[in-house]
Amino acid sequence: MAFNGTWKAERNDNYDKFMEQMGVNVMKRKLASHDNLKLTIHQDGDKFTIKESSTFRTKEIEFTLGVAFDYVLADGTEVNGSWVCEGNKLVGKFTRKDNNKELLTTREIVGDELVQAYSYEGVDAKRFFKKE
User: Fold this and answer.
1) Confidence bin at 75 (pLDDT 50/70/90)
2) Cβ(40)–Cβ(22) under 8 Å?
3) Burial (CB count <10 Å: 0-12, 13-18, 19+), residue 93
4) Are residues 119 and 106 in contact, defined by beta-carbon separation less than 8 angstroms?
5) Among 4, 21, 22, 41, which residue has the least CB neighbours within 10 Å?
């Protein structure tokens, strides 16, 4: 249950390059790098509820580990996939509906931060969140 709580984005590493690889236009990339994203995570066994709040939208998603679901990224990209738990790390494997390419993402607690890592078509990025 280490993920439980509200986490605010503090900094990014290679996030603009990752978004560019995902096909996000330059204007949306500039806005996204300053989106004030907050994740409110609640875990109950294998079930997760995550509220994403940013400058652009507020969205709540619910999922169960190992069960595929549809999701729409902030830029409108539609994906399908699932999260699994590998040790203390959440690992997400998602397939884009528009081109069938795979987006990998992980979430793990490192020290006092939630680190969300992304990998798409050879480009890796990270976002770092602090607990509020």
Assistant:
1) confident
2) no
3) middle
4) no
5) 4
How many CB atoms are located within 10 Å of the residue 11 CB?
A: 12
- The pTM assigned to this predicted structure is 0.93
At 68, the amino acid letter reads A
Residue 12 forms beta bridges with which residues? 127
CB under 8 Å to 34, separation ≥6 — which residues? 55
d(CA 62, CA 55): 21
The pLDDT-based confidence of 1 (bands split at 50, 70, 90) is low
Q: Are 84 and 33 in contact, with CB atoms under 8 Å apart?
A: no
Task: Using a pLDDT cut of 70, give the percent of the chain over it.
Answer: 99
d(CA 108, CA 114): 6
Tokens 């993402």 sit at which residue? Answer: 105
Measured CA to CA, the distance from residue 61 to residue 28 in angstroms comes to 22
- Closest by CA to 71, choosing from 90, 89, 52, is 52
